[in-house]
Each structure stands twice: as structure tokens, then as C-alpha cells.
Target: ATP-dependent RNA helicase DbpA
Amino acid sequence: MSEPTPALRHFTELKLSDALLSSLQEAGFQQMTPVQALSLPVILRGEDVVVQAETGSGKTAAFALGILSKLDLSHFAPQALVLCPTRELAEQVAEAIRGLAKSMANVKVLTLCGGVPARAQVASLEHGAHVVVGTPGRILDHLSQSRIDFSKLHTLVLDEADRMLEMGFQDDLNAIVTKTPATRQSLLFSATYPKSIAQLTQRITKNASNIKVASAQAEPKITQRFYDLGDTSAAQAVQQILLDQQPSNCMVFCNTKAEAQSIADKLQAKGFSALALHGDLEQKDRDQTMVQFSNGSARVLVATDVAARGLDIAELDLVISLHMAHDLDTHTHRIGRTGRAGAEGLAVTLIGVHDDYKMRLLEDSFADLIRLQPLPHPAADRKPLQSELVTLQLSGGKKDKLRPGDIVGALTRDNKLTMADIGKIKVQANWAFVAVKTAAAKHALSLINNDKIKGKRFRARAL
Model:
């Protein structure tokens, strides 16, 4: 893979429609990131491309602009398909495409993922869609039931292809590709480029341009520490580090789903603001967990690597790895979640008796030998930090025409709450979430449950 110098810097230098340029300007996009400058000219020419780029590099906008540039809005048939490893990422991608399509007339973007009833998706498919974004399993399910037709498809995108292969979607991907026209344009994006990705590239692309893009973010300032677990239990070790560091937020990575749930349960029992995220949770529970951690109403997220994929936290104080990751790429991805955009971050790895071999492999990439440190022993009076926010869930969402501004208006109507009492708001299809100061939660619930928003009554509860 090559890493040429980007020749283009501004979106106005590309052959984009006035509508797309307007959307870019409204979204605050001006100068292209390296991944956009390198890949967009190739994508807009209709050629296949394979891009190795990290999360946060701007790759979503790159393939979204390519898709939107080619749409024939008079045909309500799937013309582009974007495959993602998780529902969370698929929803982020769909939202980004909708945002860039704002200035275009009536672009329909449909999300098809597991974890939600297929019945509603079938109804949406009957009404047609220009762009489909989804996970391989659910897309293949609709294909096998002849609910979706890709005969008009001109663009196929595999986003985070390496993760899809790691999650075992190889056969599903092969089956989906066979249902798409051979004349399609294929775009593959991957954070890493193992042998399996090279093989997948050969199968689905034709004469693809290969581009490797360095991270567009500032050089991270990450301090790595390695602690010897010894005879200390994993849960106790995590507690000691959290009490010692007192991070505003922290992700604890575990190699198994059972371990993630166990650690979260033990942290909660000791008074920590902690939640678990793994594949055994129902989708609604995963959604609620992601929202609570993203909006700061939970300080600690204990997760498996696959479940945390698609969760993008701009500022993360601390990352704890409970044992070495299964491979070095995953270890790098874990620690890269802290110290973003030039901020300082701390990545801690807890080393047990079975981690020595993988630790030595990692050590080969270091300038100095890894020195195992003893676990910290925080002062006895240290207490777990509690979140200053609580998340409220409302029984309505985009399908009810509910918007963030409507929620703010409802919460501030009697002038007892101000914007300072309100945190992040996320509106999904059927639900909406808003973070509010803990002290204001009771009054906020009363405002929503005892009055109407846009002439409708909604129920709210604290998560």
C-alpha cells in the first residue's frame, strides 16, 4: 500500500454538486482530511478502492460523498449498500449520510440491523430506499427472504472490514456479494490490513487503488503502564486503579463477555458508576448503555472489544486492559481510545501469569523493556467518583417528529432548569435520551411526564 501526498485540499476542487457542497459547508467541512483527499478523486471516478485508515480519519464522509454523487433519486431502489460490523456503527454511518444528503431532495437512507424486529424493516423496504446501511447478518436474512433487490446497486462499501472478518462474517459477506451486480463499484475500508483482508480484496474488487492513510488526528500523548496482577483478583485490581486515578471516564476491556459482566457487577457492588457492554446483552440494553457512557452519566464502561466497536468517545481519561488483548492490533486499538486529538491519556494493562508471551511480543515494538509495576494502593479514604448526570429515556423519537430542541424547550419551560442542567441529547427512531444534572432529574421527569411536547404526551424514566 502506498501513502501518496494528497494533491487536493478543499472540497470545492472536486466535481461535487452544489447541493453536496452546501451540505458540507453547513456541516462545517472545509479542508479535506488526508483520507478524503486521497480517496475521493478515485471514488468519484467510479473506480474500486481499498483504504487502510483509522477511526476518526474522515472515511465515512469520503464514501458517503461518493455514494450521494451517483444517486438517481427518481428510482426508489437500493443503489448503494454499506456493510458495518455492528448496529451502533451502522446507525452512525446512516446518520452521517443523511446529514450530507440534507440539501438533496428526498434521499431515503434505510438502516437494516439485527436486534430490532424485522417486521418494521420489511415495511420500510416496501416503500423503497436509495441507500441501505446494515450488518451482514440482517442484510443476508432479508436477501434470503427475497425482501430486498440489489439489481440496481452501483456501490458496495465494506466499512471496518477487518472487524467484520474477526466477527465471523466471511460467509455472509461472500453470500451478499454474489447478489450484487458485477458492474458495481466496491469500496473497502479497514483499520488494519491482515492477510484475510488482502484475500477479501481480491474477491470483491477489480483493479482497486490501494491507499494507506496516517491518522488525521494529532499525535497521541499516551502513557502506558503494565501492572503485575500477582495474587490480586482482576476486579480488585481494577478497583484499586480506579480509586488511585479517579478518572472522569474509563473503559475497561475484557477478553470475554462473562468477564466483562462479572467485573461490572463487582464494581457496581462497590459503589462505582459502572456499566457492562457485550454481545450477550439485548439490543435495547446495549443502546441504553452506550448512551449513558457517551453522555457522561456513567463513568466506567466494562466492555469486550467487539461490543465497543463503533463507540466513539472524544475524550477518554483512562483505558484498562484486563490481561493482554488477543493480538497486538487489538491492543493498539484499545490504547488509542485515550489521548485523542493531542490530549494526554493513560493506558494500563494488567498482566497475569498467562500474559507473558503476548507481552514479550508487544515488547519487541518498544524501544525499552517493559517493566512490570506493583499495583497502586490508594488511600483508605478514597471513594468511587459518582456521575453528576443521569440519563432520562423518553417514549418517543424521530418517528414522532421529536427533535432535541423540543426536549430542551420542555425542560426549560418553567425557567427552573437552564441549559447548564442539560447534557447531551440523542434522538433515535423510537426513543430519545437526555442527560440532566442529578439534582435536576426529579423535576425534569415531572416536566416531561406531566405535560405535552408538540401536543403529544410522552413518558420518561431515569435509567
Notes: Residues 87-100 form the longest helix (14 residues). The CA atoms of residues 165 and 196 lie 8 Å apart.
